[in-house]
Amino acid sequence: MKRLILVLGLFCVISSGKALSQADKHVIEISNPTPLTRKGELVAISWDQIVSKYPKIDTADFRIVEVISGKELPWQLEFKGEKKIQNLLIQLDINSNSSLRLEIQKGKSSLVKSKTFGRYVPERKDDFAWENDKIAFRMYGKALEESPSEMAYGIDVWVKRTDRLILNERYKRGNYHTDFGDGLDFYQVGLTLGAGDIAPFIKDSIWYPKNYRRWRILDNGPLRTTFILEYDAWDVNGKKVTVEKKISLDAGSQLNRVEANFSCDKKSVNTFVIGIAKRKEPGVLFLDEQEGLMAYWEPKHGNDGTTGLGAVILPDVKGITITDKQILSKVMTNEDQPIVYYTGATWDKANEITSSNEWFEYIKSYKIRLLNPLRLTLE
Question: Which of 76, 193, 220, 329 could disulfide-link 89, Cβ–Cβ 3.0 to 4.6 Å?
């Protein structure tokens, strides 16, 4: 599997403190091999690699500083649900076809502002909701199945126009269909895959599971939130199928990383679709089967504005179908490996991506970044 790097937003603070001896400084050189400016990129460095180079590093007493500017950069220790640290995550800006030198310095790090968050929401029919500084999402749980008129399957979108974390505020208010200045929920999922969910596709039919049953948080910010949703077995054309979805959202990114691990007889159930709900009114589509890109600029929703949806699909896409309710990208697998793709949304009233062309360019450049990760060297 190819190594993947996400596109994220940048948060920096000014470095301060006494000058350090050369023995207390360790250099990481980052290079950008693309003609794209990588703004707010997140790089992941194996913690074992860090420790092998700097065995005396103290997790409570180090900071990351950009050498030329002297700015301190935000970082996170990623555990991936393990007791042992797996990666050091660092956010940075880097110009096209250029390099950047960072120092790991001894000294207390400035507090990093939390920009990602997720939680189980038992007070709202077993939702699992998550967000970053750009956008928010939720998946529906078991309790919603007890309300047939509300039943829905796929990924829901909560649009935002603030970089604050607002999920708890909205749930506490109990009214998230009204914009109080930070955004709202007006996206319609219904009995579809919503904003990029995935399900088996057999005999020209989508075989939906029931909503998720179990959840587990692996990391919860400040720069990356990762969690797992587990689904009970369901019937797919006479075969029992289960799925575990590992979802990650990074600060500054419009897209989630989804790793869907289906357990089934891959000879009988080997075709799946990733879908985006489609509206009755005309919208704007960008579909590139060869590159695995799917993007949709919805029709304007009155005073609420316009939502853009999109997916970057890493397995080969075997066809894209447009129905009256969904845009579906078909993928196939005969291996015991997860299906990895990226899916998410944007909102024109956030005033960052305000047109279909800008959204489609974002999706295209996202794929380029994934295929061309930043390169790093530890000195």
Answer: 76
